[in-house]
Each structure stands twice: as structure tokens, then as C-alpha cells.
Amino acid sequence: MTIEPKVRALPQAVWILGFASLFTDVSSEMIHSVLPLFLVSTLNTSASIVGLIDGFAETLASVLKLFSGALSDHFGRRKPLLIAGYTLSALVKPLFAVAQNPAMVLLARSLDRTGKGIRAAPRDALVADVTDEHLRGAAYGLRQALDSVGAFVGPAVALVALSYTNNDYRFVFWLALIPGVLTILLLAIGIQEPNRHAESKDTRPRLNWQSIKDLGRPFWLVFAVAVIFTLGNSSDAFILLRAKELGVTPNFVPMALVVINVVYSATAYPAGKLSDHIGRKTILLVSFALYATVYAGFALAENSTQIWCLMALYGLYLGLSQGTLLALTADRVPQTLRGTAFGFINLSIGIGLLPASLMGGFLWDTVSSSATFWVGSAFALIAFLLLLTDQHRPSAAEKS
Length: 400
Description:
This protein is mainly α. The protein has a single domain, classed as Up-down Bundle (Growth Hormone, Chain: A). The protein is about 80% helix and about 0% strand. It contains 19 helices and no strands. The protein starts with a helix and ends with a helix. The C terminus is likely disordered.
């Protein structure tokens, strides 16, 4: 079966959302790829503070995703929240450029991730709203693939900018504003969302105990797996710091994210399409096993050559897991509760990411850098074993 027919069958809205993610990730990853170095070398912060900033910001975003997803279900509209979230993330980029201390970086990072928190669950729900069930894995895979193109273009642009400006991090932060503004224009013009709820406002779902029960046990097992896995999934900032520790020069550290996201981009769509045929659970189990292996590799690595190989494998893990988890979530919940379900899945990341990043920074500062990665590997194995216990019989959509 060739890729082209399935790609052509995907709705225009999926492509628009994919390119919006691409431009936003160019902007965000230009900053994210150099921010740990900016904090450590320019603002003289510790690894623990780096972990605190990243963990707090991502946790804030994850909590907001819960409410934005539920609101998009209740009002029957995704686009206003999409526009609001992408606009906030774009307009706070200059705050990074003028930051003079870690507190200002924390504020900028928190506002940036607040924008992500507002837009992410409605966006993921909208992909399911406009896509037929038998194309769902491919649709999420395509959006993730385009997203990851931006995630390697951003660090590549940062690398070029640093090379020509003698490591001027603030110039990179200013430059990141441009693709962010392009995203807003693309969504405002290109997205036409379907009329999903014909019922009255009083009958639309609310975030309450009954809605939580209606999500069902199969969904909550996936939620629990995501929480446990995320407890070991500390900030990617530690991967960048590990690269620097093993001899990668500072101006080439952004290339680590380029390598990761090139592989991520190349594998996300094929993995999503494969999950349409052999099942989401199988793909997700493989991704957890791979993550555990890669993090053990980061703990044992002794030179920069090994780091580059591990970066590529980490990109493969992302390609296998990210879109597959979203498709699995969409498969297991009612259509009217998709935004709420994606909000909870993203909340699971928030529940785990702050303690994971704080623990990662603490272990780095007090034990060793390797300890950070050993703990991450262990949590991935626990999540793998829990997912193995899942007895849910997949629907036709999950099998197709």
C-alpha cells in the first residue's frame, strides 16, 4: 500500500494544523534549543533551576489543556481557543530576549507554555473531528511529522544565527517572533471548523463527575500509563546538557535537536499509518521499550559520537509514540468528550513532568548526570509493564 492515496485523503484542516505546528515549532525550538545554555552560561543558573523552569512551565500548560479541551467540548468550537493560544505563544517571544535573570525567563517560558496549554487539546480534538476513523493514525502522524519538521528547522536556524552572531542568544530570541506571527495568519485564514454540536447549549458536555465517568475505564488506563511514563520523562534540557558534558561544543548543541527531529519527522507519519493497521497498543509498547533503552544509553555514553546515535534513536521513539498516543485516546472516548479526554492526557504529562524535571535536576546536581537517565529508563519500563496488562478489546477503528 503506497503512502500517497492516504495522504491525499486527509482533510485540508489537518494540513493547516500541521503547518501551523511547523511554524510554531520553528519559533519555539529556536528558543528551546539554546535556552539551557543561555541560563547556564549567561545567567549562571544551576541544572536544578533549569529543571524547575522547564518543569513548572510544562506543568502549567498541561493543567490549562484540561480546561481548554473541556471548554471546546462545551461550546462546540475549537478555533477561537486555537487562535488565542497560538497568539499568546507568539507575542511573548520578546520577553526571552530582554530577560535579565532566571525569574524573567520563568515568566516568559510560563506564558509561552500557557499559550500551548490553551491550544493543544482543542487542536488535537479538531484533528479527530475532521478525520475518518480509518485515517486517524495517519492524520495524527502527519500533523506530528510537520510539527517535527519545525522542531528541526528551528534549532538549525538557531545554529546558523549563533554562528554568525558569536553566540548572541538574545538575537535568536528576537528572530523567533517571525514564524510565530506567520502561524496566527495561517490559522485565521485557513481553518474552517465543522459544526460538531447540533444540540442546545444545555445538553453539551461539561467538565463534571458524570463526564469523567463517561470517559470510561479503557481511557483511564491509558491516562495512568501516561502519568507513570512521564514521571521518568524529564525535560529534554538534560539531553542538551548531557551532549555538552560529553564534548559537543555549545554552538553545536542545537544540532542535537535537529538530529532528533529529522528522525521524528521521517517516522511519525509511517508510524501513525502502521498503527491504523496493526494497532496502537503494539506501537506504543515498542516506543516505551525503545525509550528505556535510549535513556540507559544516555546514562552509559562516554563520548559525543555515542550521543549523536542516541539522539537519532530518541527521535525514533518520538515518531512511534506521540501521534499513536493521541490516536489511541481518540479511539477510546465518545466524540463529544474528545477535547476533555485530550485535556486529561495532557494533564497526565503535567502531573509527571514537574516532579520528573525537579528530580532530574536534583539527581544531576547531587548524584550524577547518569542517575537522571537511569531513573527515566526505569519509569519507562514500569509504564511498559502496565500497558501490557490492558485487556481492552480494540474497536474497528483501533484495528483498522
